[in-house]
């Protein structure tokens, strides 16, 4: 099962290496990972999607991450009310005749054209992963030359539904 | 070295005028941490540090091992026995990589170490410079934390943090990598050593509500058992454990590293559990309906096949490291915190319990019916017998350090530890070559106590160069080589599981260990006859100085009882002669 985990970490050299190394040697698969500064200049936020077998494995992931000295807080936010976004850059084959047609496809996705050359054009799209996948599928017939994706970044919504049943994944909760 | 007042005054004045270098700050930090014993080995990148140490050498007991692996195992032995962090200094590159085995060993056995490694000058880091190794990259998976210091003024804080991290929570090794220029350069900026680690706040006091759950479980239980690990020793909770077990009359099983945390000769002690544990211990772990794990990590050598581990038990697990809880064994009552606090809370909450007399009697009759055994030797000595004799000759009061293999298991079986902090062995990593240097650290930690190093002929040959230290430091360690001229445990497995194909496990040639001892100016004795051994042992133990005893034992002897690999606690073999 895929889980979205966020980690607030100290902005120190090697911290990403510590985390990816840890996940690798404990045999956890990382689907995607994105890192960036937070509102606090000493801290970074890492959002990753991991593929784990069961809740026991998941609990080990979060506990092992929490053990790292430079990791301040780890949360599995998969089952919470969250906002998650990914950004993708897609370069496709196109020519002058096709441009308007493609424009028509990407418009409903609120994607934008960010680069045009004689026989290619590049599109930028942000949103949930499903949306990005959908756009990629629609553009595939035109010939995709290159894709660059950031992986998901996410955080909790401002308000969590109060009556939501939270299934505790940890014995310690 | 004693200095006159005038000299000291002059030195103080000279110091006041020259700005402090990184190396000076390091020494100051070591003094502040009350470090007395240093296990260091010099080299190019740490010349500034050793130069600063030279000026302050009257403040430290510096021990020069003959190989960095010796330094770090000695530091481990020191940490295990003293309860204080072991401090190691080595140079960059090979000096640092020679520490890797010991760092890993300390990590898996939770020993507090602070390891300083030299590094090449900062401008050439990353250029494959002479004696450069990426020791941060290498040690990240095997340390509790590590640092490379980039600014001289960071050193005091980093060192303070490192000692804090190494010694608190679940102890472990911390590496501080110091580029040569950081050690050599004067500190131009102001510095202070205060720190804040928001990501490192170990839970010491357990949640009383979880203890309440344990209380309820005890009320319901009919067959409870305590599994006591090294966490009890780190928490110094042996007396609380004893009181708890006695109050409720619950039998106690020890892990290998937990030996001594509960008195080995106590009525309620079932001995060691696991692959070479006692029948009584393993049967109790199998039959129990309430397993109370205090400071043990459910290692696979203890549990055997997990499907047969405590199959009908409710599991309560007290551990300071939450990641250990539920890692291997499904746990119903997790209690995160220091074992001592937990036991104090348990005493407060759990006043009375149902009688466990029927269960207790079953455990004790198993203990009586199926004791550890060996066949009394007539002509040739055997390892079990040798260790039993050593146990009796030392009245069970020695500090015992072992290497890894058959002699280690026999020591765990036949040397009954009644007190904590007496047992030094490499458990998790199973590091051959550990025992002898570790005994040196143990003796340095307790200079007035009797230290016995029980080693195999294989492991001893991995680190025997440290014999130099015995004479140099007048350490009266008694080394007993349980010499079967083979890698006994490997040989045993090849006999049992590889149709007696003894691939590379039998030594065709060995050094003359007595001559070797004499070469290091140590008394050496070779004994083959059991009567000679019995006759000479008391005298050799009492000998004022180091002794090496080459005890020749039967090669074919195996460690029993045993849970064969992949089998469960209920599938022991060799339970009776």
From TrEMBL, chain A:
A Gene Ontology biological process noted in the UniProt record is: L-valine biosynthetic process
Q: What is its EC number?
A: 2.2.1.6
Keyword Amino-acid biosynthesis on entry: yes
Residue ranges of every copy of the ACT domain listed in the record: 4-79
Query: Cellular component per GO?
Result: cytosol
- Reactions the enzyme catalyzes: 2 pyruvate + H(+) = (2S)-2-acetolactate + CO2
**Keywords tagged on the record:** Amino-acid biosynthesis, Branched-chain amino acid biosynthesis, Transferase
Q: Which GO molecular function, any one, fits this protein according to its record?
A: acetolactate synthase regulator activity
Q: Which InterPro entries match?
A: Acetalactate_synth_ssu, Acetolactate_synth/TF_NikR_C, Acetolactate_synth_ssu_C, ACT-like_dom_sf, ACT_dom, AHAS_ACT, AHAS_small-like_ACT
Q: Which Pfam families match?
A: ACT_AHAS_ss, ALS_ss_C
The pathway where this protein functions is: Amino-acid biosynthesis; L-valine biosynthesis; L-valine from pyruvate: step 1/4; Amino-acid biosynthesis; L-isoleucine biosynthesis; L-isoleucine from 2-oxobutanoate: step 1/4
Q: How does it assemble?
A: Dimer of large and small chains.
NCBIfam families attached here?
A: acolac_sm (TIGR00119), PRK11895.1 (NF008864)
Function (record text): Catalyzes the conversion of 2 pyruvate molecules into acetolactate in the first common step of the biosynthetic pathway of the branched-amino acids such as leucine, isoleucine, and valine.
Similarity remark: Belongs to the acetolactate synthase small subunit family.
UniProt protein name: Acetolactate synthase small subunit
Query: Which species is the source of this protein?
Result: Streptohalobacillus salinus
> Where is the organism placed in the taxonomic lineage, from the top?
Bacteria, Bacillati, Bacillota, Bacilli, Bacillales
Automatic annotation (TrEMBL), chain B:
Q: Which InterPro entries match?
A: Acetolactate_synth_lsu, AHAS_TPP, DHS-like_NAD/FAD-binding_dom, THDP-binding, Thiamin_PyroP_enz_cen_dom, Thiamin_PyroP_enz_TPP-bd_dom, TPP-bd_CS, TPP_enz
Q: How is the cofactor bound?
A: Binds 1 Mg(2+) ion per subunit. Binds 1 thiamine pyrophosphate per subunit.
Thiamine pyrophosphate enzyme central domain span: 211-343
Which pathway does the UniProt entry assign to this protein? Amino-acid biosynthesis; L-isoleucine biosynthesis; L-isoleucine from 2-oxobutanoate: step 1/4; Amino-acid biosynthesis; L-valine biosynthesis; L-valine from pyruvate: step 1/4
Domain (Thiamine pyrophosphate enzyme N-terminal TPP-binding) ranges: 21-136
Q: Where is the Thiamine pyrophosphate enzyme TPP-binding domain?
A: 403-550
| Source organism superkingdom | Bacteria
Q: Which GO CC annotations does the UniProt entry carry?
A: acetolactate synthase complex
* Cofactor (UniProt): Mg(2+); thiamine diphosphate
Which GO BP terms sit in this record? Answer: isoleucine biosynthetic process; L-valine biosynthetic process
Q: Name one GO molecular function term.
A: thiamine pyrophosphate binding
Swiss-Prot/TrEMBL catalytic activity:
2 pyruvate + H(+) = (2S)-2-acetolactate + CO2
Tell me its EC number(s), please.
2.2.1.6
Keyword field? Amino-acid biosynthesis, Branched-chain amino acid biosynthesis, FAD, Flavoprotein, Magnesium, Metal-binding, Thiamine pyrophosphate, Transferase
EC top class, as a word:
transferase
Specify whether Cell cycle is a keyword of the entry: no
Q: Which family does it belong to?
A: Belongs to the TPP enzyme family.
Q: What is this protein called?
A: Acetolactate synthase
Per the UniProt record, the source organism is: Streptohalobacillus salinus
């Amino acid at each position: 099962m895929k889980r979205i985990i966020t980690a607030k970490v100290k902005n120190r050299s090697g911290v990403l290496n510590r985390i990816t190394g840890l996940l690798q040697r404990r045999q956890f698969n990382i689907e995607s990972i994105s890192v960036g500064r937070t509102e606090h200049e000493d801290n970074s936020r890492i959002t990753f999607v991991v593929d784990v077998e069961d809740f026991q494995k998941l609990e080990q992931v979060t506990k092992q991450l929490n053990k790292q000295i430079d990791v301040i807080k780890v949360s599995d936010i998969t089952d919470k009310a969250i906002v998650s976004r990914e950004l993708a850059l897609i370069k496709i084959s196109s020519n002058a005749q096709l441009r308007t047609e493609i424009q028509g496809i990407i418009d409903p996705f609120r994607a934008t054209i960010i680069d045009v050359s004689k026989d290619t054009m590049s599109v930028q799209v942000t949103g949930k992963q499903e949306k990005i996948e959908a756009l990629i599928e629609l553009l595939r017939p035109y010939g995709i030359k290159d894709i660059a994706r950031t992986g998901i970044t996410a955080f909790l919504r401002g308000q969590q539904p109060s009556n939501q049943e939270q299934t505790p994944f940890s014995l310690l909760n | 070295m004693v200095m006159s007042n005038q000299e000291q005054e002059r030195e103080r004045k000279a110091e006041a005028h020259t700005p402090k270098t990184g190396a000076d700050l390091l020494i100051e930090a070591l003094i502040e941490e009350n470090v007395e014993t240093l296990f260091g080995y010099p080299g190019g990148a740490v010349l500034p540090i050793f130069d600063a140490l030279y000026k302050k050498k009257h403040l430290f007991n510096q021990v020069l091992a003959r190989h960095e692996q010796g330094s770090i195992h000695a530091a481990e032995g020191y940490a295990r026995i003293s309860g204080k962090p072991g401090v190691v200094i080595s140079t960059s590159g090979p000096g640092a990589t020679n520490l890797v085995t010991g760092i890993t060993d300390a990590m898996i056995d939770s020993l507090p170490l602070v390891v300083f490694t030299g590094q090449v000058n900062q401008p050439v880091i990353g250029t494959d410079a002479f004696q450069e190794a990426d020791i941060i990259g290498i040690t990240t998976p095997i340390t509790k934390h590590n640092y490379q210091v980039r600014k001289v003024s960071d050193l005091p804080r980093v060192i303070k943090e490192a000692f804090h991290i190494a010694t608190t929570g679940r102890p472990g090794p911390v590496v501080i990598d110091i580029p040569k220029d950081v050690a050599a350069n004067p500190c131009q900026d102001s510095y202070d050593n205060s720190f804040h680690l928001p990501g490192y706040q170990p839970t010491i006091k357990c949640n009383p509500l979880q203890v309440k759950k344990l209380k309820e479980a005890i009320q319901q239980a009919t067959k409870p058992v305590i599994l006591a690990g090294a966490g009890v020793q780190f928490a110094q909770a042996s007396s609380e454990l004893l009181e708890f077990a006695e109050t409720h009359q619950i039998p106690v099983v020890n892990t290998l590293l937990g030996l001594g945390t509960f008195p080995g000769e106590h009525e309620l002690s079932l001995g060691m559990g696991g692959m070479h544990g006692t029948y009584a211990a393993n049967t109790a772990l199998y039959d129990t309906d309430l397993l109370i794990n205090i400071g043990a990590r459910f290692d696979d050598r203890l549990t055997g096949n997990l499907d047969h581990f405590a199959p009908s038990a409710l599991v309560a697990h007290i551990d300071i490291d939450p990641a250990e809880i539920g890692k291997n064994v499904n746990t119903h009552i997790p209690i995160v915190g220091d074992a001592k606090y937990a036991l104090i809370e348990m005493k407060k909450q759990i006043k009375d319990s149902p009688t466990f007399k029927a269960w207790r009697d079953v455990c004790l009759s198993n203990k009586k019916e199926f004791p550890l055994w060996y066949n009394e030797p007539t002509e040739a000595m055997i390892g079990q017998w040798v260790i039993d004799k050593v146990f009796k000759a030392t009245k069970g009061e020695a500090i015992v350090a072992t290497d890894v293999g058959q002699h280690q298991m026999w020591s765990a079986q036949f040397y009954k530890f009644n007190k904590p902090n007496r047992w030094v062995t490499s458990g998790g990593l199973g590091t051959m070559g550990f025992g002898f240097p570790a005994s040196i650290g143990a003796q340095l930690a307790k200079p007035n106590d009797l230290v016995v190093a029980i080693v195999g002929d294989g492991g001893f040959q991995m680190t025997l160069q440290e014999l130099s230290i015995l004479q140099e430091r007048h350490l009266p360690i008694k080394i007993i080589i349980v010499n079967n001229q083979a890698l006994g445990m490997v040989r045993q497995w090849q006999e049992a599981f590889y149709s007696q194909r003894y691939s590379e496990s039998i030594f065709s040639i060995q050094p003359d260990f007595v001559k070797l001892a004499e070469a290091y100016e140590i008394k050496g004795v070779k004994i083959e006859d059991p009567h000679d051994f019995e006759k000479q042992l008391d005298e050799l133990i009492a000998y004022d100085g180091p002794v090496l005893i080459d005890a020749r034992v039967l090669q074919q002897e195996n460690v029993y009882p045993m849970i064969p690999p992949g089998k469960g606690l209920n599938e022991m073999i060799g339970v009776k002669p």
